[in-house]
Design brief:
Low-confidence stretches: none
Largest sheet: 4 strands, antiparallel
Order of helices and strands: EEEE
Distance between the termini: 10 Å
Oligomer: single chain
Shape: flat
Structural class: mainly beta
């Protein structure tokens, strides 16, 4: 699923809506965990995305 790790970027943006406020879904390429980053102006926050059972959404990692 992920590109070659030689780019040394740990997080990959897989979804983005941006303006003065917006959100991004990031995937940690080392763990596969998905995170939601949301902001409005200069204020923002990040949280792991959870499935219907409350467990983190994780993508398979190609090693």
């Amino acid at each position: 699923m992920f590109k070659d790790k030689s780019d040394n970027k740990r997080f990959e943006v897989i979804y983005k809506e941006d303006n003065i406020s917006g959100c991004k879904i990031l995937v940690d390429k080392e763990t596969g965990v998905h995170y939601l980053f949301s902001w409005t102006g200069y204020v923002g926050g990040i949280t792991p995305l959870l499935d219907q059972n409350g467990k983190p959404i994780v993508s398979p990692i190609n090693k």
